[in-house]
């Protein structure tokens, strides 16, 4: 378009919408990035004021032949929130809790609701939404649903796909549908479009059940591709097909959630290890104690945090000596005595594994919160690294089974050394999903060449372990090209 601000699309949107319409270069520039390494300028930006605005904008986009890109807080790390499309920002107006049932522990929210705001609303009722991503103060429920987000406590509560009940959505043709768990006999009375869609999806699930079982990684942290494994269930929940679809299948108007009781008692054990490998090897034994979280902090993160005044005092409180890695092991539940007993079992287990007196116990809330704040700030801490070389996100969240975790990380480190660099590791050891960032200087051409070589060699190892090339952050621009080698040609054709 020669003049974006005066294009037919822009004029139609301004005439019909109550919300904001922005086609100027500055606004498009602001929406050209997210938390990934990519930058793509959108065709324009709308900020719908109501659900009706969304319907109108979508219909105008359909008429103009323009793709639509839903956007929340822009926290995506693989480029899902950017593209040459009409961006629809839900955060300003579509950010309300619409329904809440404390007794049945359910809520219905608009896509622009921020996770932290929802949990503040729920806390007086003794409830919370348990998919606790570290970007909770800015990540929206719409974005989390589109991404199939996970969080630190997925070992206890699962991913978004395990916590979404239903989604009210708009399809690409503008028609409305509620996607939920629908037995065959309940399809009567639904719109022809929705009925036809559900029947086609069930036929796909039945036809490809064997291929799905063969090709999909048997991991909790598998968020790559579409969740078509849901279609092999006796009563598939059609909303789970939308979860993780990254805005490619429908626009989420309302998201129906399952909530959880806030555990009144938590304790935390900080396990110290003399080597990174031993920390990874021990994780498979620690999870047998039924913790609510097991999070990794590596030596690089410890050293960087010690140099940041905001975190230095806290780090000195929970880090003893010079460990190469820490595992933060949390136990949570109703009975405090039971959680303290679990902590004692952790201490005993560490001793039996050859690490006596290696657990710093945090039993008061203030100390625990301070430790978790360091972990939640892991990305910011890592990016404080001085010099041109920075930890770069592109194999950020590959996942493997716990029995393979130690060897996977050892081989990954060998790849980094082969290319003359090292990497940073932190995050979700409990489910075999680490945030891994090789340190590269992207100001030099060699940085991009090393990136390409590292990703190809890493994903080859992930496939060898029957792991997942995306365990938390989705596909976006970074992973989609690798679907065929990950899932096979037949599965990619099903995705398409």
Keywords, separated by commas or semicolons:
Uridine Diphospho-n-acetylenolpyruvylglucosamine Reductase, domain 2; Uridine Diphospho-n-acetylenolpyruvylglucosamine Reductase, domain 3; globular; five-stranded antiparallel beta sheet; 496 residues; seven-stranded antiparallel beta sheet; Alpha-Beta Plaits; 20 helices; alpha+beta
Structure description:
The mean pLDDT is 92. This protein has four domains: 4-89, Uridine Diphospho-n-acetylenolpyruvylglucosamine Reductase, domain 2 (2-Layer Sandwich), CATH 3.30.43; 97-261, Uridine Diphospho-n-acetylenolpyruvylglucosamine Reductase, domain 3 (2-Layer Sandwich); 265-382, Alpha-Beta Plaits (2-Layer Sandwich); 390-495, 2-Layer Sandwich (Alpha-Beta Plaits). Strand 8 (164-170) and strand 9 (176-179) form a beta hairpin. With 496 residues, the chain is α+β, with helices and mostly antiparallel strands. The radius of gyration is 23 Å and the shape is globular. It has helices at residues 8-16, 25-30, 51-64, 115-122, 141-147, 154-157, 192-207, 209-215, 239-242, 276-286, 299-306, 309-318, 336-352, 365-376, 378-382, 402-418, 445-464, 476-479, 483-487, 489-495; strands spanning 20-22, 44-47, 68-71, 86-89, 97-101, 106-109, 127-128, 164-170, 176-179, 251-258, 260-261, 265-273, 293-298, 325-333, 359-362, 390-391, 423-428, 433-440. The longest helix has 20 residues, at 445-464.
